[in-house]
Amino acid sequence: MERNTPVLPVPESGRLPDLLERNAQLYPDETALIELNPIHDDAKNLLWKDYALVETGHSSHYRSELTWKQFDDRANRVANMLIAHGVKRGDKVAILLMNCIEWLPIYFGVMKTGALAVPMNFRYTSEEIAYCTELSQATVLFFASEFLERVEAVKDTDLMQGIREYIWLGLDLPAYATSFEAEITKFDAGRPEIAGTITPEDDGAIYFSSGTTGFPKAILHSHNGLYTAAVTEYMHHGQTHDDIFILIPPLYHTGAKMHWFGSLVAGAKTILLKGTDPGWVLDTAAKEKASIVWLLVPWARDIIDYIESHTEEVKALDFSHWRMMHIGAQPVPPSLVKRWKELFPAHDYDTNYGLSESTGPGCVHLGLGNEHKVGAIGKAGHGWQTRVVDENGDEVPRGTVGELIVKGPGVMREYYRNPEATAETLKDGWLFTGDMAKEDEDGFLFLVDRKKDVIISGGENLYPVQIEDFLHGFAPVKDVAVIGVPDERLGEIALAVIELKPEAAGSVTEADVAAYLEGLPRYKRPRRIVFEPVPRNATGKIEKPKLRERFHADAIVAKQTAE
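Predicted structure:
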């Protein structure tokens, strides 16, 4: 398929709103965003929007669209509304929303005021909402019906007293809130007037760590850090104006949004797809002529299983426009990519590695055409440097396990209001990732595990990711997580939580798994096997703290019972 020449060159530094305004000038009437929302029981909460009802069998859904000019106009209206409501440069504005077509115009509108956008995890509990609101010092909160009970449970607590305005998206407006849709219609779409110039070095946003290693920390990024994430993504995957990107993961997280930034650079269309049903994803990719899809490991696995069980149905779909699938946020089993390439041999593939502290994905990536190195996270990304170091910060020889550290334009400014954690993580401009890795003879980096996840059993270091990768090769396994649990004799032992494919549930036994594990050295084999679903958060990461809390408690109870 012939594709247009990229719009590049773009400056190596800048601000994201500059790219939005440029697209509104270059492509005013072309579609920028499409929201596809499947019909469900809670559909009434969607009907305050300008939706078209589309009924096409499998993919009956609500559809809403914005052109590039409408996108920029709406962002300007949001900015002018916020300024009229007293928001000024340096203020913090929290966004607590599910993925929706309003999300990005609100995000850009906040930035256009000189305030900081503060995206919040839509899975946060009431207590986490209050904690992150106070930590970030947010003064305005955008929220919708899905969060009403959680917000109201803590609205009057001390931690939420900094919020001076609640802005509501939806029907049934709470008495204490302002209606988003009614309010922005009062303001024009002209570029907001603010005191002074917002520079690339100004603070732009506060994101939160995923919480997989503890309670969330607030991560402060500059405008330029966010902008360079867009340039890095663009340089890695070469989005063109003709590309169509399907965006599924949550916009509150740096992952999917920073991959979308490449489409922003190219002025390319994006589909905000609500839901992860594999049939829904495939149907959308075919009918919308999508060319790029970014997935998490469980979704890619579900799509493969769906194709293999719905062969004739999938054969009828046209995927000729689909040119690339890439994955990030977690280690990728090589067996998964092998199965994908068997089904889509012409697809480009990339593995992306990054952290919220490094402005999301891109500080390391596998690179297109490097499928022979699948299993590695890759090499330093565009504009980035990497090292593997020991406990003293000294570089280790190739092939030796050490901590991965990265340096580049997207490194966070700091953990906001947490100088101790900042000092532990940022040293001489290098970001200490907490991930254990090793470099092969060709310079490709392989993740071994999280530093805090390493299991020390009888004096031997066990790396759960290695054991998980091995178990992913066992055909009945759908997902797996390996953690360390206390053991009186060995200190710790490895426990494997295994989620079986539906057709294997009830027929595969611990003995079957043990037989397969004979392919591992004896000391690496898990001593305990548990069959149950593997918990993952919204960004696809295994929630190991939850597993440890539960199984550590079980181990303590078992020991006390034995005594």
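Summary: Confidence is low (pLDDT under 50) at residues 559-563.
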